[in-house]
Amino acid sequence: MKRSYFSGPYALWMILFTIFPIVFVGLYAITVRNETANSLYAGLKNISEIFANKGTYMKVLWRSITLAFECTLICLFLGYPCAYFLASKEFAKYKTLFVLILLPMWMNFLLRTYASMGLLERNGIINTIVTSLGFERLDLIGTRGAVLYGMIYNYLPFMVLPIHTSLKKMDRRVIEAAQDLGANPLRVFYKVTLPLSVPGIISGITMVFMPSVTTFAISGLLGSGNFMLIGDVIEAQFMQANNWNFGSALSLFMTALILLSIGLLNRLDAGKNSERSEKW
Amino acid sequence: MVKLKRFFVGLKGSYIALILLFLYSPIAVMIAFSFNEGKSRAKWEGFSFKWYARLFENADILDALKVTLIVAAIATVVSVILGTLGAIGIHACKKGYASAMINLSYLPMTMPDIVTGVSLMMMFTFSLPMINPILSDISAWLSALFKKDIDLTIERGMFTMILAHITFDTPYVLFSVLPKLKQMDPNSYEAALDLGCRPMTAIRKVIIPEISPGIITGALLALTMSLDDFVISYFTTEKTQNLSILVYSAAKRGVKPDIYALSTIMFLTVLALLIVVNKRSTLEDIG
User: Fold this and answer.
1) Are A234 and B266 in contact (CB < 8 Å)?
2) For residue A113, which residues of chain B lie inside 8 Å, CB to CB?
3) Which domains does chain B have, with CATH numbers?
4) Cβ within 8 Å, pair B19-A255
5) Are residues A9 and A80 both part of a single domain?
């Protein structure tokens, strides 16, 4: 028996439970359900529905993309200095600090969202402090800011990790060479460190943007349903409206959008050997 | 100059501290108030284990805990077997097939969770009504044979959740084992064969011991991922709840201290598992 046959069960499993289900998404997306005859026929009505309907779904999509974009941008601006400082000479020896930044990433995102709800809610700790200082109670839950906060809170570590990795991999001698050649610290950063950390930035952007654009539950819990995102709409199609065809079309559309943006991002990084560090 | 440098180091340190504060304050508040005597999530009314005791009286929570543990245990065992065998097979394959399999394994890791969830949900709901009549025939036959009530029919519940968990766990096992296989000296397996081992014995005696660190890391990762999953579980079951699903439905109704207690336990469990994984390899370069 050849050793390669050992991959048989795994290959079979992947075909049954990964490829097969994706085929289902595709098939449902391009078929339409006839309620009266209870039958399916081929048609692109569900795909066109995404663009039609007075742009309702386009609005949701646009909201998801802008929120995810803002979240990614803020994570980048908060996370880059953090990764940079952690990789610097003075702090590189404290490995525990870095592990502490990564730890929340491993915690269930629902629990993290639940914990931030406790902070923001009407009788939560922030409002207790605010009212004890003599100010009006703030309605934080249900605002766009709360949803954005929840996303940043959930995904910030995903930005720090790859940037830190790429900074750590950098050859320190390049920086020393730049310093020896008379570049001041600011110039060293802009001309050497920043360009060399671009692969890390790109994979950080992917790792934050991807989950934040597809998220559901965060917007429902922190936004009290006022800020439906594309993930919430998909969930509703499957769990409440029972319209699998439209849900599949949305899933397909969203996946295509994500693959496209990942492709574009990788194109930005073309030529350099991009080291996409996944969660691992 | 030295003073200025120390000032900058202080500045860097305080920035890191601020980020840590941002990340940990909600968790710290949650853990602290899970020990609160009163119902308030903002006013401290004294220390107690009251909410923890409540957890163990709540049948729903205990059921969900049981589901979470059973699913995680079975999914871990099966995915370790599938993933390890898969890695050994892929490692021995020709380049083209191997890279196709590796790319295929990346798919469930990069696909949005919600898409994985709904795709599995559709497949299960679609295929179960087709499989179940056959299964019920088999169960009737088995029941007659053993003179016991045997029901093999499958519903969208714990069983389908286990299948889904195996699906997303296995690639993680695969990617923890593959690097260990690459590090191995290929000659040792050949040597075992030359010395008269049968392939199975050679795998058991030569390959498995060499890659066992990868297998254990993979198992721990699979266990963590499985205990932690919400989105995919949510879509692959109907009535059966695991702990994450229970937290979600509780969260929709607002924040409650008993769920704080539950979340604290879940957080500490994952933390403990991660410390074990981290002892084996740094979080950064697993897999």
Assistant:
1) no
2) 251
3) 51-115+155-285 (1.10.3720.10)
4) no
5) no
Q: Are residues A154 and A204 in the same domain?
A: yes
User: Which pLDDT tens digits describe chain A residue by residue (280 residues)?
Assistant: 677 788 888 999 999 999 999 998 888 888 877 666 666 677 777 777 777 766 778 888 888 999 999 999 999 999 999 999 988 877 877 777 888 888 887 777 888 888 888 888 777 778 778 888 877 777 777 788 899 999 999 899 989 988 988 888 888 888 888 888 888 888 888 888 888 888 889 888 988 998 888 888 888 888 887 888 888 889 988 888 888 888 898 898 888 888 888 888 777 765 444 444 443 3
Tell whether A276 is covered by a domain: no
Q: How much is the ipTM here?
A: 0.82
Host domain of residue A86: 45-268
Instruction: Tell me, yes or no, whether A165 and A92 share the same domain.
Output: yes
- The whole-angstrom separation of Cα B74 and Cα B70 is 6
Provide the number of CB pairs (under 8 Å) joining chain A to chain B: 241
Residue A73: inside a domain: yes
Same domain, A121 and A217: yes
Question: Based on the domain organization, do A90 and A23 belong to the same domain?
Answer: no
Q: Which residues, numbered 97 to 126 in chain A, qualify as contacts with chain B under a Cβ-Cβ cut-off of 8 Å?
A: 97-104, 106-119, 121, 123-125
Give me the helices (H) in chain A, please: 8-14, 20-29, 45-51, 56-87, 89-92, 95-102, 109-120, 125-132, 144-169, 172-180, 185-188, 194-196, 198-214, 218-222, 230-239, 244-268
- Cα–Cα distance between B85 and B88 in angstroms, integer? 5
Backbone angles phi, psi at A32, to 5 degrees: -120, 140
